[in-house]
């Protein structure tokens, strides 16, 4: 029987760590960080292309927070919850 997860754990948690080996966890962590940084770089370049200026301060912080939350939800729903 599976545990009932709360709202935050369902949307932003990663429940697959318990069943992965240490080697798989390390590889997955590196892969996720590379994909996260690539997506963030695309957001920053896209912002600069659209506005004609580099983001700084509040826009940059908002992009980082929004991308982090979207990325975590995407990873959890597509790759973890979707594989069950």
What key phrases describe this protein's structure?
70% helix, mainly alpha, 3 helices, elongated, 84 residues
Q: How would you describe this structure to a colleague?
A:
This protein has three helices and no strands. Helix 2 (22-51) crosses helix 3 (58-80). The model has no long low-confidence stretch (mean pLDDT 77). The longest helix is centred in the middle third of the chain and has 30 residues, at 22-51. The chain has 84 residues and is an all-alpha fold. It has one domain (20-83). It has helices at residues 7-12, 22-51, 58-80.
Break the fold down into its secondary structure elements and pairings:
Layout: H1 7-12, H2 22-51, H3 58-80
Helix pairs in contact: 2-3
Domain count: the total is: 1
Query: How confident is the prediction overall: mean pLDDT?
Result: 77
Q: Roughly how many Å apart are the termini?
A: 14 Å
Number of helices: 3
Summary?
With 84 residues, the chain is mainly α.
């Amino acid at each position: 029987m599976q545990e009932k997860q709360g709202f935050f754990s369902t949307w932003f948690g990663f429940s697959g760590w318990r069943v992965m080996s240490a080697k798989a966890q390390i590889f997955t962590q590196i892969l996720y960080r590379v994909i996260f940084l690539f997506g963030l770089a695309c957001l920053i370049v896209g912002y600069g292309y659209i506005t004609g200026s580099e983001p700084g301060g509040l826009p940059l912080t908002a992009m980082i927070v929004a991308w982090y939350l979207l990325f975590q939800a995407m990873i959890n729903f597509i790759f973890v919850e979707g594989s069950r």
